[in-house]
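Researcher: Go.
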Amino acid sequence: MNTTESKGLYTPLSIPTFSYEKDLGDPGLPPFTRGIHPSMYRGKEFTMRQLTGFGSPSDTNKRIKYMLANGSTGISVLFDFPTIQMVDSDSPLSIGHVGFSGVCIDTVEDMHILFDDIDLEKYSISLVTHYPSNTSILFAMFLVMAEEKGFSISKLRGSVQNDVTMEEVIRCGCDFIPPKPCFRLQCDNIVYTRSYLPNWSPITLNGYNLRDAGCSDITEMAIAISNGLETISELKSRGYNPEFIAPRINFFWSIGNNFFDEVARLRAVRKVWHNLLKENFKIADGKLKCHVQTSGITLTRQEPYNNIIRSAYQALSSVLGGVQSLHVDSFDEAYSVPSEESALLSLRTQQIIQTETGITDVIDPLGGSYYIESRTLDYEEAILDKIDWINSIGGYISLVESGLLHTEIADFSYNYQKSIDEGEISIVGLNKYCTSNTHSIPCFTYPDKTEQNQIEFLRKVKANRNQDEVNIAIDALYEVCNSNLNIFPFCLDCARARCTKGEINNVFKEAFGPWDRPKG
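Model: Structure:
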């Protein structure tokens, strides 16, 4: 959604108060409008990190290796619905969902298979853990696997999501823990990770899924920034220096179809983050690092090959906006997880931008454009106004508890779809320039017997583990949930004992109790 209606022509009069030093600056210097590195992609290329995850851990392991062999420079793992909901594969709630839209993980043993014969110290690895509670579970399993394979966790590079927004606002589930203990888990995970994994980013503040769920481009960024500021404040109250925490906070943005607005938004939010860190925590060079994914909600089932063009332009605007890491959606994701062919095409889209277009040869090539600078200032003002509103109602966690954000999402989604239905928003092939021709595309076919095989493997793991060790670890986790100690080390103990994700999640639900989430 645009901050204001764009004018047809922009001149120096469009930005009369514009200051190069205050509003723009040189690349790699405050306020980082032009990017966080002095030479940007000339010295540090953006990471090409395509999401991968389907079927069994073995199936996804093969796809990861395929993408790496074809030039992917990072690993990003997506988990199936039961894993994201922290329900074991043998639960009745998982029937029909195991291995769909992500890889199934129940215990550390699955992590061993997922990363079999992959050098964990060579690649940056993104675990799409979504929630703080799921991060406590899946990241613990990942770290135990890495240790058992002989890797030094201090050398690992990567990120987890670990975002309370994902768990309490975006999540579709049957039960929720309350926002405050969820926020505690988020902060506990950060403290442990920063203490023992210096090269790992312990939180990725997620605007992408929020925007896909239904909110404006302004709300997407303001919510993530507010969460980040409240997180730093909480950890400061625990005795941690903000400069110890802030450099490893990452962001995750959605990039839509309005090409120049998306460029301007990325430039504006870097400036906002830097200025707020300086104002609130005296951090002199707060650099906003972000991963970007092209917009899932813009993909259409009608004329699906149009999605190739949409995603390519969205990727181009991302790079011109100065991102650090990129995923390009595949054209068939409106139907299923990407086929091997479409996933490769998305990777090639990034490689063509990086290698053939010359876009990465110039640092911030759109900088100084009257239009871009005007829109950047518009977005800066709009994001700050939204943050001020969040602060006026008590801060980010208070906003989540109030249900106001849930209502905003519901209202925005309704009005957005209504605008499409009534033709106010034009979508080629859907409500404009439509054709009666049907398009048949080769869709991904899920491996056979994934659910059956996963349940049988889980049964064997349970049969071979030491149940006394499981019981001790589970009991200790419950006790620490009711104390002031950091919870994450006890999740590691549960993972080592081969506790399942469902067993660990049950402890959280029992210890913290249920939360009747606002319906919006």
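Model: Strands lie at 47-48, 51-52, 74-77, 124-127, 157-160, 200-201, 203-206, 249-255, 289-294, 325-327.
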